[in-house]
Amino acid sequence: MIGDGQASAGSYADAMPLPVISIAQMREWEKATWAAGQTELNVIRRVGGAVARRALQLTRAGDRILLLAGRGNNGQDALASVESLTDRLTDVVEVNDPTTDIAALRTALSRKPALIVDGLFGIGLNRPLSPPWVAFIEQINQAKALVVAIDVPSGLDADTGETFGAVVLADVTLTVGAPKSGLLKTAAAEFAGRLEVTPDVGLVPCPCSSRTWWPLEQDFIGFPPVRRVYTHKGTYGHLAILAGSLGFHGAAVLAARGAQRAQPGLITVFTSEEAYAPVASQLQAVMVSPWRGTVLSAGPWTACLIGPGLAAQDCRKTFEPAIAELWKNAAFPVVADASALDWLPPGETMSGSERILTPHPGEAARLLGCSVTAVQEDRLNAVRRLSEKFGNAWVVLKGHQTVIGKHSGDIHVNSSGNPWLAQGGSGDALAGYLAGWLAQPPLRGDILKTLRYAVWQHGAVADRLQATRPGWTIEDLADHLGSIAPQP
Description:
Layout: E1 18-19, H1 23-35, H2 40-58, E2 64-69, H3 73-80, E3 89-94, H4 98-110, E4 115-119, H5 131-142, E5 146-150, E6 172-176, H6 189-192, E7 194-198, E8 212-214, E9 238-242, H7 249-262, E10 266-271, H8 276-281, E11 287-290, E12 303-306, H9 315-329, E13 334-336, E14 355-357, H10 361-368, H11 372-377, H12 379-389, E15 394-397, E16 403-405, E17 411-413, H13 426-438, H14 447-468, H15 474-480
Parallel strand pairs: 2-3, 2-4, 4-5, 5-6, 6-7, 8-17, 9-10, 9-12, 10-11, 12-13, 13-14, 14-15
Antiparallel strand pairs: 1-8, 15-16, 16-17
Helix pairs in contact: 2-3, 4-5, 7-13, 7-15, 13-14
């Protein structure tokens, strides 16, 4: 039996990501937990405690919290949170019949709660909602209060991300145990809000397999590894960056600053003649050279980043041949971003080398010859297709819940970040930061973990900045990359 003080699926003493699972797999997991001697009541109590902790973080002393409890376990989770909501005013509406209970809802909403906890329906909902339920949920959404949904926003299919006629609009979805596959669908994003997982609720280790994974902060404890004393800058590689053109010099600067935060041994930026002066004037430790047609694949580099800011009118003619040659022939990792993505030759590359694409959805759509909507409807499949087209390259498909993977193997969906990353230059800083890590030979043993860490750190810094200094800029982001130390 797993008690409060024992390890469970979510404590992950040996840090590992969480599997993304289906409703059927969640039921299998629950059955295994009850068979091991754990009680449903204890799990409910622990989920309630997790809901209360998140509600307290989102409110202040004296704020009013409205808890909506349906007839199932989600309702019990909501009720279990009440005892831990100290220093808050709480209203509880237990909902059995939406037709008769909507009056109680309206009365509670008239008190202007700062936060609503949605415990109406869980993953067991499998049929369209009746008109009274639709009206009930619409009343919640019209309140314009912050909403925390327990496990899944009420009215959402946790397998498909589709709706059952109406869905509670959550600001935070606190899903239990592990993410459900439907919550990662683009169609579900506007309803689920920020997806968070409360894994340590007393469930046994998850018995389910998955090809899609969700990182935990604890996955990155001890990464990057401690540097040995008897090393020097040559130990940590030399990154080349081909970036920046007239009117787009800032992308080269941000990429270089992002790379510096990964602390490779050396960084050299090659930039267009027109951008050389503004780029060089803003960088000190980074070496800057005007582009003179260097054959980058033959240089002393241990990795290369290509593309940020190569958007001036004549850039394709100037840079495409060199980028194509580098992509095909370099024996070291090459990261392609921004304009360079459109100039890559498809097909196989140097055997044993690593190639990484970092497109946003619009760029991915161009590369695949489809619409942005098609990419967003199945982001995991878009990653698979892009990787296949470009010789099984790694793909970092940016956006809400950035996806990392290849044509074959597991897919990882990033858990950090927020909408304030939607600023020009965010991707340049990420590409530089990611390439700065890949340039370091000691980190070559686990390319996937290096990619996952860079993407997670980029999002985690944005989360910290938004919580502590709203109005931050991408320059602030670049300055703070690497500053988030993962906590147990």
